[in-house]
Amino acid sequence: MNRNVIVVGAGIVGVCCAGWLQRKGLSVTLVERDAPGEATSFGNAGSLSPTAVLPVAMPGMLQQIPGWLLDPLGPLVVRWSYLPRALPWLWRFIQCANVEQMWRTANALRPLLAPIFECYEPLVRNANAADLIRREGCLYVYDSEEEFRASRQAENMRRKLGAVLEDLAESDIRRMEPALAPGFKWGTYAPENGFTVNPHRLTRAIADQVVTDGGRLVRAEVHAIELRRGGGVVLRTSADELAADAVVVAAGAWSQRLAASVGDRIPLETQRGYHVTLANHGVPARRMVNWVRRRVFATPMEMGMRFAGTVEIAGLAAEPNWARADVLLNIAQRMYPDIDASAVSRWMGHRPCLPDSVPVVGPSPRAPGVFYAFGHGHVGMCGAPGTGRTIAELVSGEKPQVDIAPFRADRF
């Protein structure tokens, strides 16, 4: 049995893996280049949705992509300088924009995301962080009847998979979120959804508890994974060599090269996302609101009102395009006309994305003792606790409660 386990990456997925591994009685070392929760988990929208099962590549998207690509500030953009490198991934992504793949993705993600609150509960209770999770539902709003009707296919699909979705009249929207602009006349409410008021603090609290419970946190960058003769792994890091019975790669957008070091070629790309957070917003908001047409979430958080979204494909090294964050600020003012934008912070992070929007969760097909937990894309906060439980079951030799076949690393 694997008794000593290294988890590479202390974002929300990594710390949930570490917490669940400890619950199985295993000795855990977290290895992270930065402090826990400082990368993608720092600035996401905080959505906690058991039904966020639809892929990014949806049927009908092909007709929209040319317009998006020509608009440097649109909801999806590829930097022209990065296009040659991104083309193989984009081709796989476009091939996934069909009804059959949409159902495959949704059916794969549903059992991983459905127990989100059940799987978070022991981790946040142990870390005294239950107050960071709110279960107020999520409001999806539309500013045109055409867009509302166009959403029927996706919403009916989520209903078939067990989601509770309530169609709203304009008066319902006004009652639930009176500060929203009057142009939002159509909406859907997902009462099962929730959000975290501080994704960074949630990630850090779970990581701190892992250390309190006997785990170890090593600040280092992992360069490669090597297999030991007779079993186990050795990690080559910027600090020292680390040895263990098993390793879990949960390094988000930086996971691809670690998988490649043991021979696994996984088509991981980063979809860069932006946010603006308005510290003195003055908006009496209770719940998350998603402006569906603009693909932007508004979340009331401890540090202010956060507006997050957009997709930019430009790799890991390119400088941020802060004009994309300014677009979010404009959207914030259109959603909430009375919002106070006097104190604004901007952020950019790297979502780790696979073409079919399904993460890689499970053992390496080539390297015994190597397990993967990355590629969650837009649903990292949602998929992290279920992934953590699944990885802990696999590493400890148990049969996982989730069928891991759709999450195989060699499915591509």
Quick overview:
The chain has 412 residues and is α/β, with parallel strands linked by helices. The protein has 13 helices and 21 strands. The mean pLDDT is 96.
SSE blueprint and pairings:
Blueprint: E1 4-8, H1 12-23, E2 27-32, H2 40-43, E3 47-48, H3 61-70, E4 76-78, H4 83-95, H5 99-113, H6 116-126, E5 133-134, E6 138-142, H7 145-150, H8 152-160, E7 166-168, H9 170-176, E8 186-190, E9 194-196, H10 199-212, E10 216-219, E11 222-227, E12 233-237, E13 241-244, E14 246-249, H11 256-260, E15 269-278, E16 288-291, E17 296-301, E18 304-313, H12 322-335, E19 344-353, E20 360-363, E21 370-374, H13 380-395
Parallel strand pairs: 1-2, 1-14, 2-10, 4-18, 6-16, 14-21
Antiparallel strand pairs: 3-9, 5-9, 6-8, 7-8, 11-12, 12-13, 15-18, 15-19, 16-17, 17-18, 20-21
Helix pairs in contact: 1-10, 1-13, 6-13
Describe the structure.
This protein is an alpha/beta fold. It has a domain at 1-55 and 99-133 and 194-267 and 355-412: FAD/NAD(P)-binding domain. The protein has 13 helices and 21 strands. The strands form four sheets. Strands 4, 6, 7, 8, 15, 16, 17, 18 and 19 form a nine-stranded mixed sheet that branches. It has a six-stranded mixed sheet with strand order 10-2-1-14-21-20, covered by helices on one side. A hairpin with a 5-residue loop joins strand 11 (222-227) and strand 12 (233-237). It is globular. The two termini are 29 Å apart.
